[in-house]
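Exam revision sheet. Question 4 asks you to relate a sequence to its structure. Input first:
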Amino acid sequence: MLGAPEQLDIFGYRTRRLAEINRVAADAARVAYNFPPSVRDERVRFYLAEAERYEALVAKCTPSMA
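Answer key, structure tokens:
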């Protein structure tokens, strides 16, 4: 019985992984008390923006299921 081939998309996988890493970094930046609140907020916004940018790239690279 042959199933659908599950080939790893190295570009999409890496990009998804980078988005996840940036979300984890944003969570860490929220509690980095060695920075003042304004810098923490700026760092959180930066990491979340990067995560969204990577997710947008994933959406472009993922074949549509239409």
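Marking note for examiners. The mean pLDDT is 83.
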